[in-house]
Amino acid sequence: MCRKWLVDAVSERRAEETHRQGSAVAVLFTLLLTTTILTTWLFKHRRCRLLHETGLAMIYGLLVGVVLRFGVHVQPDVIDAPLSCVSNSSPPALLLNISGRLYEYTLRGEVSDTQGQDAPNAEILRKVTFDPEVFFNVLLPPIIFHAGYSLKRRHFFRNLGSILSYAFVGTVISSFVIGVVMYGCVALMSALGHLGGDFFFTDCLFFGAIISATDPVTVLAIFNELRVDVDLYALLFGESALNDAVAIVLSSSIVAYQPVSSSSHSFDGGAMLWSLGVFLGVLSGSFALGTAAGFITALVTKLTRLRDFPLLETSLFFLMSWSTFLFAEACSITGVVAVLFCGITQAHYTHSNLSAESKKRTRELFELLNFLAESFIFSYMGLTLFSFQHHVFNPVFISGAFLAMFLGRAANIYPLSFLLNLGRSNRISSNFQHVMMFAGLRGAMAFALSIRDTSTYARQMMFSTTLLIVFFTVWVFGGGTTPVLSYMNIRYTHIYTITQISYSQDSAWPIRLWYTFDHNYLKPLLTHSGPPLIKTLPACCSPLARCLTSSQDYQVKNTHLYPARRCLVSEILALEL
Amino acid sequence: MCRKWLVDAVSERRAEETHRQGSAVAVLFTLLLTTTILTTWLFKHRRCRLLHETGLAMIYGLLVGVVLRFGVHVQPDVIDAPLSCVSNSSPPALLLNISGRLYEYTLRGEVSDTQGQDAPNAEILRKVTFDPEVFFNVLLPPIIFHAGYSLKRRHFFRNLGSILSYAFVGTVISSFVIGVVMYGCVALMSALGHLGGDFFFTDCLFFGAIISATDPVTVLAIFNELRVDVDLYALLFGESALNDAVAIVLSSSIVAYQPVSSSSHSFDGGAMLWSLGVFLGVLSGSFALGTAAGFITALVTKLTRLRDFPLLETSLFFLMSWSTFLFAEACSITGVVAVLFCGITQAHYTHSNLSAESKKRTRELFELLNFLAESFIFSYMGLTLFSFQHHVFNPVFISGAFLAMFLGRAANIYPLSFLLNLGRSNRISSNFQHVMMFAGLRGAMAFALSIRDTSTYARQMMFSTTLLIVFFTVWVFGGGTTPVLSYMNIRYTHIYTITQISYSQDSAWPIRLWYTFDHNYLKPLLTHSGPPLIKTLPACCSPLARCLTSSQDYQVKNTHLYPARRCLVSEILALEL
């Protein structure tokens, strides 16, 4: 009994100590972010556009990493000494997060394996290491939702065809090109005797998928300040938001590709088909879930008058969007992807139902969450360069990766732009294409995907190389955007009043079909805009239509002379855009 | 090797399953909150003030608890069957949160002990049970910060003396009275043979501390709508915000009281002194930390011009406030209490340095966080009545607790009001006193304190009883506020233009001293208001004063004719209020 009490007291004390240390680590990160914010302010105050806040956050993270690795000297025994009587239990794991998964500060499986060849401050470095799943379950969702929610709807939907081509076809091309180049590179390394472990073709394709996820943050921040051409902005933003989704689903499908004889790693048709099934299933499932959540929120905000109570409205909006993520995770679909589609749907339908106050509140809330999550990820990236203890830096692989990255991006942008220009009246100029090529920065998503699994030699090398690619692109490309844009002479121009009509007339038929459907059925159903459902739905559905048209709709719409049942696309576009 | 891979795969699958279940539980709670929001809207829409959203949240939680306990039938074997080969490892614990501590869904120590006499759906009920520390580290901090940040400064500081008396002296009196009454009640139970375990006098005092934490939410929401007298509002709000802090520190000091011979539980002078030391140390430490964080944020926002960038300003504000909590936890002081003082300081100094945009953003952000956290706690409370599997309901103890609660509150309010009225020119009328007596609802803090430790018989009985007290006070007192207020004839009155001067002249000397110090030194140092530091500081400090006076201060203050170095208190108050 007394012994049990003693053990309880000791384990209680240990839990307390772990909590104390966890809080101290969290204080470290909040101070890091605070410093980043103050420096960002200083840069903005002095109108210095050389370095974006993400670049700054990385630098500070890097500095802290250096200090922790080389500057602090702690006797490893000191920390655990008073508790050493129970120290042969599991290693002190510090767990965090909200949605239920185990998030250990300690990287799983590495503690006991590698204690021999650890860095000098292994204990401290382990304490500042998060479980990689924290990125997917806590930090990426608000970032991705924010990207979807802040897509400039008008320009996004006008360029939908091109955006989808770049994001879907382009990302697959890019992944494949990078995969092939890296396979050649790995073969070269193997011939040179540089390869220290297995590296299969699927690994190369996986690396291709990781590195194809571009991050628009830095470049778009500068675009915003410079007020760059809205169509270019929409293309770039739309592409990089959607290609994150494609990259994440693609990489998980490649992981799902397990040849029947797992030792051979030869091509297996059945496994390939299974992979393709996973890709399409997860993508369409996430799409269905995200849009369904958006539709439900839109309907609720339309049919109730929550707009009189902005706090309730904002809370509902937040909860519904968050539950999309949770629901997708509970169904074993990718929550991050579902959240993107949810964000786009919320922006397209729900946003117009919200009160002016809630519109502002929701935007600001997600802007804040996005800013904090992003700053945290980038500063953590900087820290990781020194705190991660199993880096594999190989000059040949790194050079190959940089080359592959450029080739992959080029194989995405230039051929697709050429093909798209055949159908577009508002052509994507070659200057635009160069900027899109240049603006292909790699950021939070590439990092999160690469840190997710660092158990094998191949994955460790990929992780280290991805880290370098992110640093390079954010600092060099991010810093170089302003000069490049002024060199390319791309500025804000008032061309869209002309383009909207010309584009509307010769847009591809699926896009036109979507526009008609959206304008005649979805918008009247989910928002207070568009022609009343009673006019657009067939006569047999009129009881349903009457039920779904709110009294507000009647009032608003009876004062307008809306086009009759089948509107012309050009008229719709003229009204919408 | 192959076996290791198999075990890895199985444990991976188990982690995935746990994550999936965790997400499903989170979906359940978001849907609960969404339903609460929609019903709240319906009530507000129909102007029904019978039930506050907290009361509603409890009802929904209760319903879900009933369904989970009696409505769902799951074969316990089904869940774990595919993984049963490793099921003799630790029980499936689902962990959550941000700041580092282990938050297990399973209540520690109860899983293996009590599997024999569990409720029908023990497995499911365990899954919806959170580690109680989640309340202290995730949910209470935003609620308490919000309380501090939204204290109406003007009326709060005008009634500071009374508020401090009620919160400090009153809470201690109330805890002691409740403790003594409960000790009598326990003696009676023991005589009747109703007592099923140990129940010491310290347990009674602990119960007194828990039950003395009043929650202003429901009553104040109604006060706000009815625009009740501002002084009464300030007294009630200030008291219930500060008495939370006192209750939390008091209860932890009682826990720290460990007589040297732990088996005897007789009075021990040394332990008593140690307890007192813990009480004063934690309280003053939290106060120092919270105000220091507020001062630093105020200085930073004053000296930089972050106000041009509301996003950065809001982020900084959020991070600094959060780091107060983390820092306090890292120093083993109570973070929740530190956060309260931080909130008050931020409201008093930093708030006036913020841009109009950030003022709005920070208020809205914490309003949202507070709303979500509070709705969650109250719905969880409802759920717990059925999901908690070790309730001890004893009619004698429950009746005694209700009686003790009223006596404790009465012993706090009436004698103190009598004493305070001797010194106040703006007397607290007997109607006011009755309302304060009536408005002593018990809410989130009482619940969180009682659920923190439910390992012994005494604590389980306290927890069950606290739950009933919360339900009763929220539903009956909360619902009855409107009729009581109209019966007591307490409405918004414009009396404070008269009271401010009369009160300023005969306020107690410590309050007057504080006012002078705050106005002459702190305000000029930390904000852009008040007389310039150069005038108020002694001549020897003028270099320092010049350094701390921003150019903006010079500009602003040179255009005003400020009173010379030593202002009269009455003048200061006339300027401030």
From TrEMBL, chains A, B:
One of its GO terms (molecular function) is sodium:proton antiporter activity. The keyword Iron-sulfur does not apply. The keyword DNA-binding does not apply. GO terms for cellular component: plasma membrane; recycling endosome membrane. Keywords: Antiport, Cell membrane, Endosome, Ion transport, Membrane, Sodium, Sodium transport, Transmembrane, Transmembrane helix, Transport. Residues 36-485 form the Cation/H+ exchanger transmembrane domain. Pfam families: Na_H_Exchanger (PF00999). It is a multi-pass membrane protein. GO terms for biological process: regulation of intracellular pH; sodium ion import across plasma membrane. It comes from the Eukaryota. NCBIfam families: b_cpa1. This is Sodium/hydrogen exchanger. It comes from Pygocentrus nattereri (Red-bellied piranha).
